[in-house]
Amino acid sequence: MKLSYRSLALLVTVLLVSSFNVVAFAGEIGLEEAIAVGLNHNSDILDLQDNLESIERELKQLKAEDNWQLDLTVDGYANELNFDDESSDVEFSITGSRTYWWGLTLESELYGAGNYSTEEELSNDETGLKLSLSQNLYPSIPTEREQSYINKELDLQVAQKQLEEEKEAKIITWLGDYLNLLRLKEKQELAVQQNELALNNFKEVSAKQEINEASEIDILTAQIEVQQAQYSLKEAANNYQQAKKSFYSQLKLNIEDELLLNEDSDYLLMIKDLARAKELDLENKSRLLDLGIANSVEIFESCLEQQSKKDDLKWNKDDDKPDIDLTGSYDSNKQWGVGVSLSYNIFDSGKQRLTEEALQAELATLKRKYDDLITDLSLELDQLIDQLKLNENSLKAKELSLAKASLEAKIAKEQLKRGLIDDFELKEKELSLKEAKINYNGVEDSLLVNKLELIKFLGKVDFRGGNQIEKRD
């Protein structure tokens, strides 16, 4: 069954209408703004932000617990089981305590007791103020809450680094996705042009067949080319739409917004300039690895974990030493005193030794994990360098293909002037040149992303303030 030109044109029109999801009067959003939206709404980043804020709240809570704590106690009771007797006794106390992290503990008590049934008895009440203090002299061991605070501060540093690292990784990933989306749109536009060329060719061959200047094979060949062009157009449109949906989902963009795909975006040009400005000696791997280790979030976290475990070991050893405290007390009833207390656990059934062995084993495990992280970083560096070199080689190959396609298009123009080829063949060469250019740009995009990943691995740039990238000194 033969397809008429009008039927094919109608089919293509329906295909294009169904493939393109254009929203009238939709808001426009550029790359920089899109990344800013993504950094403020991406689920992975928000989870890390929530974790950071949770640690900050816990630190504030630990601080608050070491401020003055006040308790009020009031007891009232009858002297005898005589309900006609209105006399009663009341006791009350207001106690306060505070522990300072340098080892000082303060306790105070305002107390009172008496029978308050008459005014005379009210004047005979017993009230007073007690004060006591205890200052740790030796050994100097942080309080339990202070130890928790120190460990939480280490957790906070890790959480901050993780959030910064995730933002940097997302920005680079989204840049790659944006460039891929740009190339997919170009491929879709190219597919539209190829489809139009195939339809026009089918129309011309059909016209020639009517005057017996084209054979059945010619018409079938043209028909096959139309079918292939339509399939390529639909595939290109689907690829573009799927990539666009994924990009919108990752950055939490509104579906009504129309993303501007602009290769000359100021933000994109700034990033390209940044990448070009960074000279990397790929042969000096030891230097690059040192930079990667210094910048690694995992290494940073491992070092803090080891430091935390060393602190636990030190505190455990100090806890086994004799405890010497300076004490003092004061009572408003003219009683006061100062003294020194000594306490020492002479036998704990080996508890302290077992705790120390467990901590030593945990520290040894952390050191092994640290060594494994170094090995993993070395492998990651090899992969980044290898991928960068592969893309550089691929770019050279695409550059040759682009030069060849450009030369073929130039020759085709001369051949058309001489009548050696027709207009259809020239347009085929011109579309092949566009395709070669798209392929070249695609590899160039991959090379840019690879270099950004390597720069990030080495800690050569800071991605600060959300979507603002600054050079690191």
Explain what the structure shows.
This protein has 473 residues and is an alpha+beta fold. The chain has a domain at 33-68 and 145-325 and 351-458: Outer membrane efflux proteins (OEP). 65% of the residues lie in helices and 16% in strands. The strands form 3 sheets. Strands 2-3-4-5-7-8 form a 6-stranded antiparallel beta sheet, with no helix packed on it. A two-stranded parallel sheet has the order 1-6. Helix 8 crosses helix 10. The longest helix has 68 residues, at 351-418. Residues 1-25, 81-87 and 463-473 have low confidence and may be disordered.
CATH-defined topology of one domain: Outer membrane efflux proteins (OEP)
Number of strands: 10
Q: Can you identify the CATH superfamily of one domain? A: Outer membrane efflux proteins (OEP)
> Helical region count?
11
Taking the alpha carbons of the first and last residues, their distance comes to 70 Å
Regions with little confidence, pLDDT below 50 for 5+ residues: 1-25, 81-87, 463-473
Largest sheet: 6 strands, antiparallel
Beta-strand content: 15-25%
Q: What class would the helix/strand composition place it in? A: alpha+beta
- What is the overall silhouette? elongated
Query: Given this structure, which CATH class of one domain is correct?
Result: Mainly Alpha
Provide the spatial order of strands within the biggest beta sheet: 2-3-4-5-7-8
Helicity level, as a percent range?
A: 55-70%
- For the residues shown, what is the average pLDDT? 83
Named at the architecture level, the CATH assignment of one domain is Up-down Bundle
Radius of gyration computed on alpha carbons: 39 Å
Element-level helix/strand string: HEHHEEEHEHHEHHHEEHHEE
